[in-house]
Amino acid sequence: MNPVGRTYTIRVRGHLDEHWSGRLGGLTITHDRSGTSTLSGAIADQAQLHGVLAGLRDIGAVLIDLRAADGG
Fold first, then answer.
1. How far apart are CA 22 and CA 15, in angstroms?
2. Helix (H) or strand (E) holding 10
3. Tell me, what's the pLDDT at 5?
């Protein structure tokens, strides 16, 4: 595990506006051709991961996939 946590990728339905990045732990938001958004970046711990997921819930995003990108 890297010193700042694990790297995650989270895919949600629709294209999220970039302004949500700050509310979602500073994750990078990429718009995919399939009409989804991929959020990626380091998440320090389980508490921060739960905070990001709660933030996605609060803005009405539909979770499609969640993966630890480092495979660990």
1. 16
2. strand 6-13
3. 85
Please list the residues that pair with 65 across neighbouring strands. Answer: 11
Cβ neighbours, 10 Å, residue 12: 21
Question: How far is Cα 37 from Cα 39, in angstroms, rounded to an integer?
Answer: 7
3-class DSSP assignment, residue 66: strand
Q: How far, in Å, are 12, 44, 60, 67 from residue 16 at the CA level?
A: 8, 22, 10, 18
pLDDT tens-place string over residues 12-39: 999 999 999 999 999 999 999 999 999 9
Q: For the chain, give the number of residues.
A: 72
